[in-house]
Write a structure and sequence with these properties.
Layout lengths: L1 E4 L7 H9 L6 H21 L12 E6 L4 E5 L7 H9 L5 H8 L25 E9 L6 E6 L4 E7 L5 E8 L9 H12 L6 E9 L11 H4 L3 E7 L16 H11 L9 E7 L5 E7 L13 E5 L2 E4 L14 E5 L16 H24 L1 H21 L1 H7 L5 E2 L5 E2 L1 H8 L10 E6 L6 H9 L4 E3 L5 H11 L4 E5 L5 H4 L12 H12 L7 E6 L8 E4 L2 H12 L14 E6 L3 H8 L3 H18 L5 H14 L2
Parallel strand pairs: 2-8, 12-14, 17-18, 17-19, 20-22
Antiparallel strand pairs: 1-6, 2-3, 3-7, 4-5, 4-7, 5-6, 8-9, 10-11, 11-14, 12-13, 15-16, 21-22
C-alpha cells in the first residue's frame, strides 16, 4: 500500500471545487458518468483498432444506491486503470485522461469515439456530495487491480485489490447533509436529465418486462391467461438518439417519436423539423422542431437542449442559437462549443458566432424549401410559425434578406402574399399622389371591421398583421425598401385620407361654419383625449368617426414592446382624432340647433356612437348611452 499527496497547485482543491467551480451540486453525477462513458468508448476504440485483443461484449454503466451504507456506486466495464494510471489520472489533477488519450491516438480517428472528457477536474466534483470517495479499478491490461481512497483532503491511499472484473467502480460515501442523493427517485431524475442520451447504456435497477403471447396459443385457463413477465435491466437512456444518425436513415415517424421522447408532456405534434449536420468548419449535429407558437413570446424560450457529445449541458442556448430561434424546440450537440470548466456557461468564442450563423442559414433554407415544395401547407401553418419568422426578420439582417422569398403577408380575407406579390397587386390602386406605396393593414378583424369594410369598398387590399412585434417589423420594412412605402392601419384615419389622391372633396360648409362646428364638438369631447378635426368627406360617409394617428400609435406600441419607438411614449395616455364630416347632414343639423343643451345632447350621442364603433365606449359612458337609447324607443 502506498500513500502520498495529490499533486495540485493550490493548498486544497476541494473548497475550490465546492464553492466556485461547480455552482450546482447535482452535476457530479453527470461528470462521473461522463468519465465512465469515456472509459467504455476508449475500450471499444482499442478493440476496434486491434490494440486490445479482448472480447468486450456489450459494456454498460451501472448506477446503484445503497441507503444502508449511505453510498452511491457508479460502475463501468471500460478500460479501467492500473495503479500507475490511478496515480497519474486521479492524483495529478492537471492532466485529463481523455485529452491525453485523444493525443496518443489522434492518427487512428480516436475523435470518432465521441470521448467527452475535456477537464481533469470532473472526477473531483464527487467531493461536493461525498465525505469519502473510493475507486476500485482493474485495467484491460494484465495487471493487478487498484483501490484508491480519499476523504476530501489532499491525502490519499492507494493499494492493490482483488477485483476480478475489468472496469472501474466509484463509491461515494454521501455527506449527511446531501442524503437526497441516496433517494432513488432523485438519482433517476438526474440520470434522465443529464444522461438520457449518453452513448453507452446506463442501468439503474431492474424492471418487469411482459413477454409476448405465443401467436398460436390455444384456449387456456384463466390462470394461464395472465401475461408472463421477466426481470430485465432498467436501461434509463437511449444511446442512439435520432440526431446522431444521418437524415437518410430516418423516416418522418422517427422524428415525431424523438420529439415525444424529448417532450413527453407535449401532446401537440411539431409542425416540421430541421436536421442539422455539419462537420466543417465545426462539428454540430441536432434536430430543431417548429412547435405551434402563440403570440406570447415570453413563455416559449428555453426548450432547446444543448448537448456536448450526448451529455446534457443546458437548456439555455442563448448565444449559440440566434435569439429568434430560441422559441423552437429540439437538440443541438457540438463538441466545439466552448464551455467553462464546469460546463455551466458558454464562453465567448469566434466558433459560437459561426455556429449561430450556420443555424440561421440552415433554418432559412429549410423554410424556403417548405414554401417552394408545398406552399398551400406552408400557408396553413403560417399563423403558428410567423412569430419566429417575423422576429428573425427584425433581429437578423441575413435572415431578413433570405425571408423575402418565404415571409407571408396575409389579408383579412385569408389570402397570402409574398412582399413581391403584394407590391405587384396593389401598386396601381394603392400608390398615393406622392408616388408612395400605401399598404393598409388591420390588427384585429373584429374591432376594426367597419374600417376594413370601408377600405374594401374602395377596392383596397387590407392585410391582417396581428403579431406583437408588427410595429417594429413594419418600421424596418419601410426603411429597407428602395421604393417609398408606408404601412397604415385602417383605423388611423378616414378611408378618404388613408391613401391621398389628387382629388379633394368640396366642403358644403364655409370656413366660419366649420370653425363653429369644431368648437361645438370641442365643448363635449375631452381635450386631453380627442383632437377635433372638421373635414369635407363623402356625404355618405359616417357623420363622426374616431381615428388613432399611425405615427403616434406605432411609436407608443414600439416603446411598450421594447427596443424602439420614442422615449417616454410607452406611458403616454391614448390620444385620438375625432373626425367630423362637414358634408354629412348631421353637421348642418347641429349648426341649426340654437339651444346649447339640445346641441350638446345631439353631439354626445354622435360621439358615443363613434366610440361604440371603435370599442371605446365603456363603464359609466356605456351605461348612460344604453339608457338614453332605450328612452328614444319608448
Amino acid at each position: 500500500m502506498s500513500k502520498g499527496n495529490i499533486n495540485v497547485s493550490v493548498e486544497n482543491i476541494f473548497p475550490l471545487i465546492k464553492k466556485f467551480l461547480y455552482s450546482d451540486h447535482e452535476i457530479f453525477l453527470r461528470e462521473l458518468i461522463s468519465n465512465a462513458t469515456d472509459a467504455t468508448l476508449k475500450l471499444k476504440h482499442l478493440a476496434r483498432i486491434g490494440e486490445a485483443k479482448i472480447e468486450i461484449g456489450h459494456p454498460k454503466i451501472e448506477v446503484k444506491v445503497n441507503k444502508d451504507n449511505k453510498t452511491l456506486h457508479i460502475i463501468d466495464q471500460g478500460v479501467g486503470m492500473t495503479k500507475d494510471e490511478v496515480k497519474k489520472y486521479i492524483n495529478e489533477v492537471a492532466f485529463s485522461g481523455a485529452e491525453e488519450f485523444l493525443e496518443k491516438y489522434k492518427d487512428s480517428e480516436a475523435k470518432e469515439t465521441g470521448i467527452i472528457g475535456h477537464f481533469g477536474l470532473g472526477f473531483y466534483s464527487a467531493f461536493m456530495v461525498a465525505k469519502k470517495v473510493e475507486i476500485f479499478t482493474k485495467s484491460w491490461k494484465d495487471e493487478p487491480a487498484a483501490h484508491w481512497t480519499c476523504e476530501g483532503t489532499t491525502e490519499f491511499s492507494l493499494e492493490e485489490h482483488d477485483k476480478k472484473d475489468r472496469g472501474t467502480e466509484i463509491v461515494l460515501h454521501i455527506n449527511d447533509d446531501e442524503e437526497e442523493f441516496l433517494e432513488e427517485p432523485k438519482i433517476r431524475e438526474l440520470l434522465t436529465k443529464y444522461n438520457k442520451f449518453m452513448p453507452v447504456p446506463i442501468k439503474f435497477g431492474t424492471k418487469e418486462k411482459e413477454l409476448p403471447k405465443a401467436e398460436d396459443a390455444s384456449e387456456t385457463s384463466e390462470e394461464d391467461e395472465k401475461p408472463k413477465t421477466v426481470t430485465v435491466d432498467d436501461i434509463i437512456n437511449n444511446p442512439d438518439p435520432a440526431w446522431t444518425k444521418q437524415p437518410n436513415e430516418l423516416e418522418e415517424d422517427d422524428y415525431k417519436n424523438f420529439y415525444r421522447e424529448l417532450y413527453p408532456m407535449q401532446f401537440e405534434e411539431p409542425l416540421f423539423h430541421i436536421h442539422l449536420n455539419v462537420d466543417y468548419p465545426f462539428n454540430l449535429t441536432g434536430i430543431l422542431y417548429f412547435p405551434k407558437l402563440t403570440n406570447d413570446m415570453s413563455v416559449q424560450k428555453d426548450k432547446i437542449q444543448l448537448y456536448q457529445n450526448q451529455v446534457f449541458v443546458t437548456d439555455n442556448v442563448e448565444g449559440i442559437v440566434p435569439e429568434f430561434l430560441t422559441m423552437l424546440r429540439g437538440v443541438i450537440d457540438s463538441p466545439d462549443i466552448p464551455l467553462n470548466v464546469s460546463r455551466s456557461y458558454l464562453q465567448a468564442d469566434g466558433a459560437v458566432k459561426k455556429i449561430s450563423s450556420y443555424i440561421t442559414r440552415k433554418v432559412a433554407d429549410k423554410l424556403k424549401s417548405l414554401f417552394n415544395n408545398d406552399r398551400e401547407d406552408f400557408e396553413k401553418k403560417w399563423n403558428d410559425i410567423k412569430v419566429v419568422i417575423e422576429y428573425g426578420m427584425l433581429t437578423e439582417d441575413k435572415f431578413y434578406d433570405k425571408a423575402q422569398k418565404f415571409a407571408l403577408y396575409p389579408s383579412v380575407d385569408n389570402k397570402f402574399y409574398t412582399y413581391e406579390e403584394l407590391e405587384a397587386k396593389i401598386k396601381d390602386h394603392q400608390t398615393d399622389k406622392d408616388d408612395k406605396l400605401v399598404i393598409l393593414y388591420a390588427s384585429n378583424k373584429e374591432e376594426q371591421h367597419s374600417n376594413i369594410k370601408a377600405a374594401q369598398d374602395k377596392g383596397y387590399e387590407v392585410l391582417l398583421l396581428d403579431s406583437p412585434i408588427v410595429s417594429h417589423l413594419i418600421q424596418k420594412i419601410e426603411s429597407s425598401k428602395e421604393q417609398k412605402v408606408s404601412f397604415v392601419r385602417v383605423d388611423s384615419d378616414h378611408v378618404d385620407n388613408l391613401i391621398k389622391k389628387e382629388e379633394e372633396q368640396v366642403s358644403k360648409l364655409s370656413d366660419e361654419e366649420k370653425e363653429k362646428l369644431k368648437e361645438s364638438y370641442e365643448a363635449v369631447a375631452p381635450k386631453e383625449k380627442y383632437t377635433v378635426q372638421v373635414e369635407a368627406l363623402d356625404s355618405n360617409s359616417a357623420p363622426v368617426m374616431i381615428t388613432q394617428p399611425e405615427f403616434m400609435r406605432r411609436m407608443k406600441e414600439m416603446q411598450q414592446t421594447g427596443g424602439g419607438g420614442m422615449f417616454g411614449m410607452g406611458n403616454m395616455p391614448e390620444m385620438y382624432n375625432l373626425v367630423v364630416n362637414a358634408n354629412h347632414s348631421l353637421a348642418s343639423e347641429i349648426l341649426s340647433i340654437e339651444n346649447d343643451d339640445d346641441k350638446q345632447s345631439k353631439i354626445k350621442q354622435a360621439l358615443d356612437l363613434a366610440k361604440l364603433a371603435q370599442g371605446l365606449l365603456k363603464g359609466e359612458d356605456l351605461t348612460n348611452f344604453v339608457n338614453r337609447s332605450f328612452e328614444t324607443i319608448k
